[in-house]
Amino acid sequence: MDRRFPTGFVIGAATAAYQIEGAAAADGRGESIWDRFSHTPGRVARDQTGDVACDHYHRFPEDVGILAELGLDAYRFSVAWPRVIPAGSGPVNGAGLDFYDRLVDLLLERGVSPQLTLYHWDLPQALEDAGGWPVRATAEAFAEYAGVVARRLGDRVRQIATINEPFVVADHGYGRGLHAPGRAEPAAALAAGHHLLVAHGLAVAAIRAAAPRAAVGIVLNLAPQHPATQHPLDLEAAAAGHEVLNRWYLDPIVGRGYPEEAVRRAGWRHREIRDGDLALIAAPIDFLGVNYYSRRVVRSPLLPAFDTPSVAPERTAMGWEVHPAGLVEVLEFVRSRTGRLPLFVTENGAAYPADSGDPSRDPERLRYLHRHLEAALTAIERGVPLAGYFAWSLLDNFEWAHGYDFRFGIVHVDFTTQQRTIRDSGRFLGSVARGHLLPALDARPGEEAPEMGPRASGPTGRPPRLPGPEAA
Ligand code: FCB
Predict the structure, then answer these.
(1) Which of 34, 75, 131, 160 is the most exposed place for a label (fewest CB within 10 A)?
(2) In whole angstroms, what is the distance from residue 311 CA to residue 184 CA?
(3) What domain count does the chain have?
(4) How crowded is the C-beta side of 136, counted as CA atoms within 13 Å?
(5) Tens digits of per-residue pLDDT, 395-405?
(6) Is 21 in the pocket of ligand 1 (CB under 6 A)?
(7) Under a CB-based contact definition with an 8 Å cutoff, are residues 115 and 74 in contact?
(8) pTM to 2 decimal places
(9) What is the CATH number of the domain that holds 155?
């Protein structure tokens, strides 16, 4: 049966500046932590960098043309802070702002709504040199940058998100050193996490002052944490994972403060929290973005690992389990905290190897998107105020520490020629956006329908060997 999206539901695709723009040294752009990190041998697969990436900085008219051709309603992109304020704070680089100005105008001209993210991980290196996110001054610099961008673009951009995935920034960047700036300092990660939220709060005020018409929000990566078995230790580990991933950032944003148990477990002495911070972080927002890729099946480290899976779950090239029901679960959980606040799926998608014969063919990705759009509809039917869905990603791109190995695009990119080829999943998403209708997909024989709703008990079987989606 075909299913219809509510009127006004937004369907789009997402990207991030460092992953697609290239032109790393063009027009006065400053160095970011991802330039430094990717140019440090051994940090990124095959020592690849975002120097050229999809060369979107020069090819954006073609990319906007693709969005328009597909008929997508909206485009979520990020602004590179070091293009706009090369040293992170201080002088503004007019040429950098001009680029985004042209991008926004062209999107509007082609009927695609621009949705902007201010921070998708490319901190100006100068700020990292001064201490980075573990230092409070970085949050203040972010508010200054937010004001600059909002003043210039906030008359035309309807939605501005402050920070993308603060969990990943703090955990991967400062806690485990997997992402730029590559620091493995747990105490610094805790400080970074708090300052990211302070940055968000300060930026909300700066954006409201500069662009009163823009809707302001933040984007969190969330994933259900399901116990591998009903063993009390697995249950405990899953509950702890839930607090750290799903509540650590969400709870303070909705005014509930940090989850106390998790804070205690992490040994955070929270000396960084100043009077007034929690109120600042809980400043009212207009929407919340949720990035959803998969769930995590949690096995206690105190128990022996499983060796035989009862049923091998379907996985993407990243090793992430395909689990659309988790999207419903996550959205319902968020709704339990945010009530009527409009929610967006700001990222959802899957990496699969390119079809070497025909780059437009991607049946697995199409099916992944279809199943998650179905889950989005189910969430809506259950009363979740979901207002839009963005596929990750418009283009194959620089997948952070994995380099170019993992392709998420609904558009294939040949990184030698920069040729773009629209994939079947892109055409499919465009057709859904045009008609606001999700066609029934022929179920493969023997396949179970996606289960919906929170699980009372966890699955049995082997926990994924590869890191979960929060370890992107
Ligand atoms: C998310 C990031 C995004 C992309 C996807 C696969 O965590 O926000 O940039 O890398 O994962």
Answers:
(1) 131
(2) 36
(3) 1
(4) 8
(5) 999 999 999 99
(6) no
(7) yes
(8) 0.94
(9) 3.20.20.80
